[in-house]
Specification:
two-stranded antiparallel sheet; 22% strand; 28% helix; globular
C-alpha cells in the first residue's frame, strides 16, 4: 500500500512540476521524471502500459527512425501515441512522458506508446516496460565516455531484451543483427549494393573484423560504410541473416527506394538519399509494415515526410552546394 501511495504522490508531483515548468516556458522533458523516480524509485513498474508499445534504439538513426515511424503510424490510425519525441531517451525522460500523460492510476487514454531508448538505458527501462516491438538501427563505436566498444553495448542491451518483443534488426550489421534469443521473433531489413555506389572497401574503420562464433577473419563482399554490409566467415560459414525487407535499388531522380518483400517489389519515397537516410527509411518501413500497415499506407505517409532541417539540410550559395549534417558531440 505504501509503495502505491508513493506512486500516486509521484504522479501528482510530476504533473505539477511539468505544469510549472511550462508556465515558465521551460523544458519539461526530464525534470518531472527525475522528481517521480526520487519519490518512487520503482515508478516504471506501476504504469498500465497501452496495448501496443514500440521502442527504437541503436547507435545512430534512432531519433530519425522514431519520429518517422511515429509519423507514419499517426497518419494511419494511431492518432494518440504516447511518445518521447520531444524529450529525453533515458529513464528520466521516459518517466517524464509517462507521468505527464497518465491518469492517476497509471493508465492511459492512448492505446499505443512509442519510445526512443538510449541503448545503455535498457537495464533501467526494459525490465519494467516490455515493448511489443524493438527496432535496433545499428551498433557502432560511439562516445569514448559511454559507448566506446560495441561488445560492451551489445551485452548491456541484449541482457535486457524481453522475450515477448518482436525485433526489427539491420541484417547488414553483423553486431546488432545477433540481438535477442530464439524466443524472439525477428524481422530483418537490408540494402544491396546500389548501382551508383562506391563501396568503402578501403576504409580502416570497421567495428567487427572477426567472426563472433569462431574468431576467424571475416571476408567482406560489400561495405556500405564502417562494418555495415555483407560478410561471411570462411571457417564456420557465419554470415548476414537474409533480409525480409531488402532495399534493391534507389532512383536518385525520383527519390524512390525499391524494396523486395515476399518476392514482391514495393516502392517508397526517400526524404533524402544519403546511405544513412536509406537505412533509416528501411527501418521505419520494416517496423510499420510488421506492425500491420499496408504498403500503400506506408508509402502514402512517407510521401509527406521530411527530414528535420536541424538534422540535415542542403542548399546552394551561388554555384556551391552547401550541406549541413548533424554530428554527435565529442565524436
Amino acid at each position: 500500500i505504501m509503495s502505491k501511495l508513493k506512486f500516486y504522490f509521484s504522479v501528482i508531483a510530476a504533473k505539477t512540476a511539468a505544469k510549472l515548468l511550462r508556465l515558465l516556458h521551460m523544458n519539461a522533458t526530464n525534470f518531472p521524471g527525475q522528481v517521480g523516480l526520487v519519490l518512487c524509485p520503482n515508478l516504471l513498474s506501476y504504469f498500465k502500459m497501452p496495448q501496443t508499445v514500440i521502442a527504437v534504439t541503436g547507435t545512430n538513426g534512432k531519433t530519425t527512425v522514431s519520429n518517422m515511424s511515429a509519423d507514419i503510424l499517426r497518419k494511419n490510425g494511431f492518432p494518440d501515441i504516447v511518445s518521447n519525441s520531444y524529450g529525453g531517451n533515458v529513464d528520466t525522460g521516459i518517466a517524464s512522458v509517462l507521468l505527464t500523460n497518465c491518469r492517476l492510476d497509471g493508465s492511459f487514454n492512448s492505446n499505443s506508446a512509442f519510445f526512443e531508448v538510449d541503448e545503455r538505458s535498457a537495464p533501467h527501462i526494459f525490465p519494467f516496460i516490455k515493448p511489443d516491438y524493438i527496432v535496433c538501427t545499428n551498433l557502432q563505436r560511439d562516445s569514448m565516455k559511454r559507448n566506446a566498444h560495441t561488445d560492451f553495448i551489445f551485452n548491456i542491451l541484449n541482457s535486457y531484451i524481453p522475450e515477448k518483443s518482436t525485433l526489427i534488426l539491420n541484417s547488414d550489421d553483423l553486431i546488432s543483427s545477433r540481438l535477442g534469443s530464439d524466443k524472439n521473433k525477428k524481422v530483418f531489413f537490408g540494402l544491396e549494393k546500389l548501382p551508383d555506389e562506391i563501396p568503402s572497401d578501403d576504409s580502416i574503420i570497421c567495428d567487427i573484423v572477426n567472426c563472433p562464433i569462431c574468431g576467424s577473419a571475416l571476408n567482406f563482399s560489400l561495405k556500405h560504410y564502417n562494418h555495415i554490409g555483407r560478410a561471411v566467415c570462411p571457417s564456420c560459414g557465419f554470415t548476414n541473416p537474409k533480409p525480409n525487407f531488402d532495399g534493391v535499388n534507389v532512383d536518385r531522380e525520383s527519390h524512390a527506394l525499391t524494396v523486395l518483400h515476399d518476392d514482391s517489389k514495393e516502392i517508397y519515397t526517400l526524404p533524402a538519399d544519403r546511405i544513412t537516410d536509406i537505412y533509416n527509411v528501411l527501418a521505419a518501413v520494416t517496423l510499420t509494415r510488421t506492425v500491420g500497415l499496408s504498403q500503400s499506407q506506408v508509402s502514402s505517409a512517407l510521401n509527406q515526410t521530411k527530414i528535420v532541417k536541424s538534422r540535415f539540410d542542403s542548399f546552394k550559395i551561388g554555384s556551391t552546394d552547401v550541406i549541413i549534417s548533424l554530428a554527435k558531440g565529442q565524436n
